[in-house]
Each structure stands twice: as structure tokens, then as C-alpha cells.
Design brief:
By secondary structure, this protein is an alpha/beta fold. It contains 2 helices and 3 strands. Helix 1 crosses helix 2.
Length: about 90
């Protein structure tokens, strides 16, 4: 069950990244702002680790921040629960 939830969360993260990365297509070193809620579950953290490692492998720079106001990237990825008081909501 947890593995299913992890894969669902990772799929959502990848989908959001793909949508927002279209704005930076063609650039060699795009700068991505990844905005996360204050507290994220272990499965989401695992997905974030995989995502950031893949960004590093592709020489894509990124920043991990807590609010949209801090975002400096061309592409913005918001990670968190859609409900509640977090940034993603």
C-alpha cells in the first residue's frame, strides 16, 4: 500500500515537473525552484531525493525553498498536499 502511494506521489511530482519544464525547454542549464511544504512524508522525501539526484545528473540547477515569494527559477515545482495549510494547498 505504501509503495502504491509512493509511486502515485512520485508520478505526480514528475508530471508537475514535466508541465513546468516546458517553459525552459532548449536551455542547457535551467534553474528550477522546488517549493515544499514544511513537513513532507518519508515517501515524498524519497521521491524528492530521486528527483534532485536526477537533476544533478543532468546538470540542471535547482533550489529547495519554502514559499513562492522566494522562487527564482524559470520552472517552478510545488510539492506537498493539496489540502491543508501548506504551500502546495
Amino acid at each position: 500500500m505504501h509503495q502504491y502511494i509512493f509511486h502515485k506521489a512520485l508520478s505526480s511530482i514528475c508530471l508537475l515537473f514535466a508541465i513546468y519544464s516546458t517553459a525552459i525547454a532548449g536551455k542547457q542549464n535551467p534553474y528550477v525552484s522546488i517549493i515544499t511544504d514544511q513537513s513532507i512524508g518519508s515517501s515524498v522525501q524519497h521521491g524528492m531525493n530521486k528527483l534532485t539526484k536526477n537533476l544533478e545528473k543532468q546538470n540542471i540547477s535547482y533550489e529547495l525553498i519554502r514559499s513562492l515569494k522566494q522562487a527564482k527559477g524559470t520552472a517552478i515545482l510545488i510539492v506537498g498536499l493539496a489540502s491543508g495549510n501548506g504551500t502546495a494547498a
